[in-house]
Amino acid sequence: MSLRAEVEVPAVLQEPTQGLALAVEGVDLRFGGIRALRGVSFSAEPGKITAVIGPNGAGKTSVFNAISGFYRPAAGRITLGGEDITSMPIHARAKRGIARTFQNIALFHGLSVLENIKLGGHHTMRAGLLSAMVYSRSTRDEEVALRAEVERKVIDFLEIDHIRHLPVGVLPYGMQKRVELARALAMQPQVLLLDEPVAGMNREETEDMARFILDVQEEWGVTVLLVEHDMGMVMDISSKVVVLNFGEVIASGTPDVVRRHPEVIRAYLGTEGADPA
Questions:
Q1: What are the chain's domains?
Q2: Which strand (E) or helix (H) includes residue 87?
Q3: What is the pLDDT of residue 118?
Q4: 3 state DSSP class of 39
């Protein structure tokens, strides 16, 4: 009899549902006298890939930090599936289905790949504090079920079975980025925030990551919002592109529309008539 039949599987790894709509509405963000975001508004459609691009310092990571709860906007609001989450703490947003990766890899290098990925699922385990401290049978059962589901669902999906017991610290950079994606997927997100997922990767690694992101969107139905400088990848996989410059949205639309927008060409691409693809 399978572990899945013996033990109730943690909700974090149940079969995925359709991703939720995400909306940023008139968000202002200030740091002292610096206005990092100026009335930023855009939406990410459920189950689609939306990219946020712009020059360095345009406010892209600030938008991500506002959505995930690291920053509190001075004005405006953020909604997830129509629910206002502007004042919601980070852990509550995670429970609502928001997961993210980071521009700088945020893994525990001394832990194995499997241990790092399992951390993504622990926030929804049902065992209480006391049960966890004494490592009760119910806690052990949840741990076993979580590991089985991570191995079946996430590790196989991202093709990293051959490295699951290795310490993260010995892996090449591109593989560490894949493990970070795996940890975010273990949270069973409905909205996945990817902060420069292919930064520093070679062409082969970039193509692999782009394929995995498309698979997450198509097979899991997850809403994906990504910040990325690789314009070739952005234009290839995104349904919608939002362009920021000096903390403001200067263009938004399909890749074909955005790549030809005169303000985008001037502010981001720098050459009149250039094609980012």
A1: 3-12+19-269 (3.40.50.300)
A2: none
A3: 84
A4: strand
